[in-house]
Amino acid sequence: MHLQKLTLFNFKNYPEAEFEFSDQANALTGLNGSGKTNILDAIHYLCLSKSYFQSADNISIRHGEAFFSINGVFKLDDRTEEIFVGLKSGQKKILRRNYKEYQKLGDHIGLLPIVIVAPIDQELIIGGSEDRRKLMDSIICQYDHPYLDNLMNYNRALQQRNAFLKQAAKTGIDDISLLQIWDERLTHYAAKIYEARQQFIERFIPLVNKFYAYLTQEKEIVSVRYDSQLHDDNLGVLLEKNAHRDRILQYTTSGTHKDDLELLLNDYPVKRIGSQGQQKSFVLAIKLAQFDLMRQTKNVKPILLLDDIFDKLDLNRITRLMELVNQDTFGQIFITDTQEKHIKNVFESINTPLKIFNCIS
Ligand SMILES: Nc1ncnc2c1ncn2[C@@H]1O[C@H](COP(=O)(O)OP(=O)(O)OP(=O)(O)O)[C@@H](O)[C@H]1O
Ligand SMILES: [Mg+2]
Fold first, then answer.
1. Domain presence at residue 123
2. Could you point out which of 154, 225, 278, 284 has its C-alpha 20 to 30 Å from the C-alpha of 308?
3. How close is the Cα of 356 to the center of ligand 1, in Å?
């Protein structure tokens, strides 16, 4: 699978632009602020219907303009898939596949698997548990279609339960049995989410270990642990046990929305003891594991977007990484760098042809 052609109108700093990509490695070079990451984000939009970097779509419209559009022509085996994402200011985002509009954006997820590595991923290490749940969810959604629905249904029930708890505190209703309707729904969807996350984790952990060992030539050992309150009991039991506390706090304190991943380096939290390069290597190992898992489950090589990847990594790790992505388990790659010469040298050293695009804003 690869992206052959990309056309942008009024997308971020691009008034109008067209790119014909190589089905192997593509480099986006240029000064800070020239629009390298923006191209990666446009590709992310096409594959997952949204930006990787911000949740509000309207800020992707070029300043002073009324709409943006992104067009992509993808090749999957012998098939062509033409994807369109468009947004007019103040209107609903439109997503089309081969000129047919999707009724539900979620239906698109999984058609064009993608993995992105960007500086913002450091949040996986230093940020809150929400970032790590989002990572799990975004991976699982791309290969397990019902998962997204389960997640949305769970979140809806959770919001309603929380709203009820707030309302009950205000109005003084103290009939706990009224929570039952939400508890049943949450328990039902949480069981599915928990099971999918567990199955994911079982396959994911050995892959993270493998890639970290590969990148670092086995200098350090990492491990990932899945934390969930549901290890102890099903959610129905937990909700009942904590009903009183939930009423006092006015929100739901147990459930899969509290799940987390513990990221350990030599048995200590990497957040606390990891150097910047070690943290970056951990993120890379996670993303490479994601790539491998998606490749296996979908039987297609995802598109790989590497944003500012060389920063903070030593030469050994860069070489290992490039050797790895040069193997034929990897497909189309997009990589950004401010220095064209640097990236050229790296790809020459691994004998890989590289198509270079110079971004000038
Ligand atoms: N909606 C928008 N309208 C116009 N310009 C925008 C919009 N959103 C972002 N930009 C511009 O895009 C540029 C940032 O582009 P991008 O993040 O792709 O740069 P980059 O080449 O990746 O830079 P760096 O090397 O610093 O990572 C900034 O100049 C920013 O002002
Ligand atoms: Mg950038």
1. no
2. 225
3. 19
257 pocket-lining for ligand 1 (C-beta < 6 Å): no
Report which protein residue has its CA nearest ligand 1's atom 19: 33
Q: Is the pTM of this model over 0.85?
A: yes
DSSP-assigned letters across all residues of 194-235: HHHHHHHHHHHHHHHHHHHHHHHTTSS-EEEEEE-GGGTS-H
Residue 343 makes CB contacts below 8 A (sequence gap 6+) with 27, 29, 335, 337, 354, 356
Q: Which atom of ligand 1 is nearest to the CA of 361?
A: 29
For the Cβ of 35 lying below 6 angstroms from any atom of ligand 1, the answer is yes
Q: Please, which residues bridge with residue 85 across strands?
A: 70, 95
| pLDDT of the residue at 344 | 92
For residue range 38-78, list pLDDT tens digits in order. Answer: 999 999 999 999 999 999 999 999 999 999 999 999 999 88
Q: Is 62 in the pocket of ligand 1 (CB under 6 A)?
A: yes
- Pairing mode, if any, of strands 268-269 and 303-306? unpaired
Ligand 1 centre to CA of 33 (Å) is: 5
Query: Which of residues 262, 279, 299 is at a domain's end?
Result: 299
- Provide the domain limits for residue 241: 129-299
- Tell the residue number behind the tokens 């987390």, with chain if given: 260
Q: What separation in Å is there between the alpha carbon of 331 and the centre of ligand 2?
A: 22
| pLDDT at position 326 | 86
Within a domain: 148: yes
